[in-house]
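PT: before anyone asks, these are the final sequences, not the draft ones from last week. 586 residues across everything. Please model them as a single complex and drop the result in this thread when it's through.
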Amino acid sequence: MTPLWQREPVGVVGLGLIGGSLGLDLQAAGARVRALVHRPATAERARERGLASEVSTDPAVLQGCGLVVLALPLDRLLDPDPALVAALPPAAVITDVGSVKAPVLRRWRSLLAEAGRGLDPARFVASHPMAGTARAGVEAGESGLFRERPWVVTPEAGTDAGALAAVRELAEALGARWLCCDADIHDRAVALISHLPVLVGAALLQAADAGAGEASDLVRALASSGFADTTRVGGGNPDLGMLMARSNRPALLAALGHYRACLDALEAMVDRAEWEALQRSLALSQRLRPEFL
Amino acid sequence: MTPLWQREPVGVVGLGLIGGSLGLDLQAAGARVRALVHRPATAERARERGLASEVSTDPAVLQGCGLVVLALPLDRLLDPDPALVAALPPAAVITDVGSVKAPVLRRWRSLLAEAGRGLDPARFVASHPMAGTARAGVEAGESGLFRERPWVVTPEAGTDAGALAAVRELAEALGARWLCCDADIHDRAVALISHLPVLVGAALLQAADAGAGEASDLVRALASSGFADTTRVGGGNPDLGMLMARSNRPALLAALGHYRACLDALEAMVDRAEWEALQRSLALSQRLRPEFL
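LR: through. Structure below.
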């Protein structure tokens, strides 16, 4: 059967990096894309860039869409505009792109159940397409962003099989790698590999500044590619970093606990001059790294 | 006056990444390079690669050199072969390339003073050319490695001005940026920007492994370029990481103390759900990062 994204228009809410990239790729694949944005200036620029077939600041633009992708930042996803919820087509499959899944699932399950009008929590599919660049906003969308990247979904027991299939067809049309898992396991994983590195790198920047003392100019002159790499995500967008921490607080605190234990052990080896143990521990890290690449 | 490296042969002890790259660039600049290596197989391969004009496993190869560069790993630099010390030409300017400076200075000051034979601690210039790649060994040397990279020297009150000038002429012939500072300040700076990132990244790899639990496969599938960057130096050569920690232990422990304080503060904000404070702290890290690049 023809995929839903080919049969009916696809609604995209938000045209930042993820929404804009979706719009470009979906249109290239032959979809009609109807986009809802917040500000008139964004709508105008999105039209100039051709990010969607139709762009509007009026939620009514979503009428007739068979599939709606909520490509909103986490804070707006967790506290959505009531006018957006009111404009969602009752029969539509709805998915999101939030980087934390359990709180999004909880919020939208109850939002859709309370909304009535035939909106069905079973047709909400929680997604996390893991594609990113350093860019954000209406200029950030680019073709091919999702190719070969993971597209994680966290269905529940009650999730409608047809809705899940419709999102899978969308993800695969974009060339993404489909991955299914439990929302809590997803959130634990991203805490460790995505949110913890932000705090680890942010603390390193502050420590290099605070600890330099008389060496203040020198640390800045000598910092090389190793320091730059280790602090890249830690020196990134503070609003995004804060939102991820706020939305994934319990999993992030658990990840910090594990991190502290590992760092404590390394520090103790340096403190006690246990050089063979330190060499073995660093060799473990060296062996682990290729498993994550 | 013609620089020393042009007037007299330059001795290079060790033909790994730094020594091999020195040999290639110095010969290209017109110098005669005499290299001392440990193993016959290394000597043979170094000759094939043209890393020096003359390569030998016999310390006598250094006779007649006006300037000798000790391009040895830290452990061999701090505990050198007595035959090497015995073969150093009495009038030569001697420099090293170790990534930690105070212990090297202490060790070589006494070694040269005890050696007699006219060897003079005042003609030892402690250097740290900050150029690196992931490669090591006789295959690693490459042209242009030092171009635009910092070449830090840590002279003392008694350091001979002519010896310092001779090393400066060498560094500048290779296109390096010359930087002079106190050895303790150098060691504090590299602890923060070079050695601390190794432990920070190594702990992150171990935490991602230890904290994953049921998410073990998922963390490996989802780790992206952000995780890869944050852990690049932490997943590097464990022997090198251990040697740096061992040679720079007090400065590294101080750096770890600063790091812990910064991470504790960030963790407390997450724990207490102080989201505005977390956003401000991450914004500080974002502002700091460009100062280090």
